[in-house]
Amino acid sequence: MTTALQITGPRGHPILGHSLELNRDPLGFLLRCARDYGDFVPLRSGPARAFLVSDPQAIEEVFVTQHPNFIKGPGLRRSAAVFGNGLLTSEGAFWRRQRKLVQPAFHRERIAGYAPVMVAETLRRMETWQEGDVRDIHAEMMPLMLQIAVKTLFGTEVAEAQRVADAMEVGQENFARWMGYLAMLPDWLPTPTPPSLGRAVRQLDAVVYGLIRARRESGEDRGDLLSLLLRAQDEDDGTRMTDKQLRDEILTLLLAGHETTALALTWAFTLLAQHPEASARLIEELRTVLNGRPPTAEARPRLVYAEQVILESMRLYPPAWAVSRTALADCEIAGHSIPAGATVLMSQYVVHRDPRFFPDPETFRPERWASGFARTLPRYAYFPFGGGPRICIGNTFALMEAVLVLATIAQQFRFTLVPGHPIVPHPAVTLRPRYGVRMVFHRP
Questions:
Q1: Top-tier CATH class for 4-442
Q2: pTM, whole model, 2 decimals?
Q3: Highest mean pLDDT (candidates 24-28, 151-155, 160-164)
């Protein structure tokens, strides 16, 4: 067995370890680590030990084979201050119970029923766009995806959705900054929530708890996710979720779900603007399959190239750019010793750009996903939604949503990048464009 002491990695600061490099340029630093030192790289942030793991088989060991020995990494554990004890942050038996209760809301047949909402909200958003507009496509996708999330969760009216959007706008940036500060601190150190983030969470709580109370009192079934979650019942003891449990799951779905899809679409439109030949191929598919009609859940399987565009966009710019797990006990992963308390860092951004799995990895080529390419890959060479028992519960929902929204917009608008506008990925909690993406909007 190769021990952790026998593997090599970059030289770090005697006290800070690799904290400065991880904060200054995490994407570049992790790419260089994998390129220069291989699939298993020891890192350190102050006294905290970590290992960058880039081998798909080793990642599968963490996600699947040995998953009971790993819990969420320190960043997500601290995010319970916002998400509470929802699926993103909970562990053990409680997580397993909640996952069983929430899972029926994301069955394929149920998800297909949300397609009309996705398309209708996109068409409504597009009513505000005009030929020649110059807009930030990321700033357009964020409220659109939030509106879709609010409608599918609550079936609620615009006024309440706007209150959620206002709180989200305040909370997103503050949460990212707060998490950045905590990355170098040990778990046991008290970390009070910033006042601005606390206010945003209280505003979200007021809306969500109000909706839960109103729905419980009315007993109305609107066919939305809230109705399903209210009816969800533990098959072992017959109990249902408390208001607090409902709040935590709803906020998790709202906060974690809408931004990742908004980013997948932001990067997809950015890449299409940079590759007009791919854009032309997408437009031709939409003409052939849809012939000017809005996309539907039934048409979605025939939107093959549209899905390939989304898959390739999430390969190059995965919204979740890294995931971490903390070992509960000493263990061995792919022949390497992992001590209890150490963090295993697995970066989608790094593995998705590995030339062993993706020829010409820096190039945007949606057609690489044709002819069953995904089945030729090692299981965890591509993992934009994580993996194992804790794979994102909304992955099927998110992929259908991204394809339908892409198809709806691409039928009516083309985009060109504003000359000179910098496109810089910013790895905060998610992989955002640091300066947005300024686009000129064109009618075909």
A1: mainly alpha
A2: 0.92
A3: 24-28
